[in-house]
Amino acid sequence: MSFFKKIFSKEKKETLDKGLEKSKSSFFTKLSKAVAGKAKVDDDVLDNLEEVLVSSDVGVDTTLKIIDRIEERVARDKYLGTEELNQILRDEIAGLLSETNVGEETEFTVPADKKPYVLMVVGVNGVGKTTTIGKLASQFKKQGLKVVLGAADTFRAAAIDQLQVWADRTGVPIVRQEMGSDPASVAFDTLTSAVTQEADVVIIDTAGRLHNKVNLMNELTKIKRVMQKVVADAPHDVLLVLDGSTGQNAFEQAKQFTKATEVTSLAVTKLDGTAKGGVVIGISDQFQIPVKYIGVGEGIDDLQVFNKHEFVDSFFNQ
């Protein structure tokens, strides 16, 4: 049993297995058809496998990398049977994630030398951004950390109210102003309050508008600049939340947001309700930005720290 197996609890593993069930079932149904009647991994099988990976939302560029890796193994090992394909895929995808993703953690932690640790959350409306913030607040609080929320998505009254609901539910303080207030002002007040309270973690919600990227860029830049008047190196992490169930649309959102601001980590939500779980593999590879969290269920504890070993194990465990 690996070290990661020991510290990744049985309950978390079961939740992860269940959350990836639709993706896994869809993938292996396609894979079975791709190798039907074939004993050896040949060009036809590889062509079919390429189609399986692309249709599983792994993405074209990442798929080609995986196929290249398998072609190298076929050339090296001379004869590989289709019955070994599952293990080969597992190995090569794990290797790919190891090159491009942190993915070693199993618990919700923040660096001890950053206090307060400032997390700015970005993403379009509807991807589960506010829910992710609420779940993060709950998980950090369970670790014994003092958390403060900032409702800097002042574009929508519903966003402020929704974050208030999560603050009440998790029992953490929230700093808010009226709809239409300056988001940077909310962020400034939040950090000032957090410093006064000696908080460990600050989570700032931001507006999820992409219709005008220049305005979004300016707004996020202003929020950062104002926060740095209170905490010099804030934000310590800019977390982009993506809806995994949208598949290729999540790639497009990642492209747009990485152009608008410096994204440093990703959360991929709603993986339990979709067969598009392969998007995690493609996004983590293509954007060279670590996937930090994944959402695999509706419950408050169903946001997990992304661990590449456990993800690959669950995805390929039949």
UniProtKB/TrEMBL annotation:
Main location: membrane
Stored InterPro entries: AAA+_ATPase, P-loop_NTPase, Signal_recog_particl_SRP54_hlx, SR_rcpt_FtsY, SRP/SRP_N, SRP54_GTPase_dom, SRP54_N_sf
Main EC class the enzyme belongs to: hydrolase
Alphabetical list of Pfam families matching this protein: SRP54, SRP54_N
Reaction catalysed by this enzyme: GTP + H2O = GDP + phosphate + H(+)
Transmembrane segment boundaries: none
SMART domains, per database record: AAA, SRP54, SRP54_N
EC nos: 3.6.5.4
Keywords of this entry: Cell membrane, Cytoplasm, GTP-binding, Hydrolase, Membrane, Nucleotide-binding, Receptor
Family: Belongs to the GTP-binding SRP family. FtsY subfamily.
Its job: Involved in targeting and insertion of nascent membrane proteins into the cytoplasmic membrane. Acts as a receptor for the complex formed by the signal recognition particle (SRP) and the ribosome-nascent chain (RNC).
Assembly with partners or alone: Part of the signal recognition particle protein translocation system, which is composed of SRP and FtsY.
Name of protein: Signal recognition particle receptor FtsY
